[in-house]
Structure prediction request, 237 residues.
Amino acid sequence: MSLAYKRVLLKLSGEALMGDDAFGINRATIERMVGDIVEITRLGVELAIVIGGGNIFRGVAPGAAGMDRATADYMGMLATLMNALALQDAMKRAGLDARVQSALRLDQVVEPYIRPKAMRHLEEGRVVVFAAGTGNPFFTTDTAAALRGAEIGAEIVLKATKVDGVYTSDPKTDPSAKRYSTISFDEVIGKHLQIMDATAFALCRDQELPIKVFSIIKPGALKRVIEGADEGTLIHV
Prediction:
C-alpha cells in the first residue's frame, strides 16, 4: 500500500482527550485514538505528536484568572506533560514504543527535547510525543506543532480537531456550508479562516509545510489521511 506521507507531525488538542467529560482524560477516548495511531505506525509511518493541555488546565482555569500570563502559560505546559505521559502509557499498553520529550527539563520523568535524538527515535520506529509546547510562554501548542514539524522534517502537520475539515462557514449553524478539499495559505488569509494561531500558520507557510485539518473523532480518518484520501482539508502553498 502506498502512503501519501512517511513522516508526519500530529497535533492533538488536550480537549480531544476529554471525550464527553467536562475535563481530564477519558480512558475510552484515549484508547480509541491510540488504536488509530497503532494502525498508521504499522503501515510504516514515522509519527511525532504535539499534545495540548486544555483538558487539564480547564479544571484550574478559574483559579488562574488574573494570574500573570507567563505563570499561567507555564502551568499549561505542565498540563501538556501530564497528557503526554498518559498518551505514552496508553501507547505502550497497545504495544507501541513511545518516548516523551519535553521542552521543559524534567529529567527524572521524561527526556529533554533534543532534536537529533528525536530524529533517531523516529528512524528506529518509535513514536515521539513532544510536551511543554515550545518551552516559552506566549506561544501556543499550535506554534509548537509547526516548529517541531519543521525541525524534524515532517512532510505535513496533521491538525486533529472535532470537525472534519475547513468549511465556507460554520457547519453547525449553516446547513449550506461546504467543506474545502484543498485550499491555499493565501486563500485562507484572504477569506479570514481560522486554522491555527497566526504565528503557527505563518511558520508553516514560510517553511512550505502543508497542514491537513481533519476530525480525530471520525473512525478511520487518520488512516485515510495518511493514504492520501479526500479526508479533511489540505492547506498548501
User: Anything to note?
Assistant: The chain has a mean pLDDT of 94.
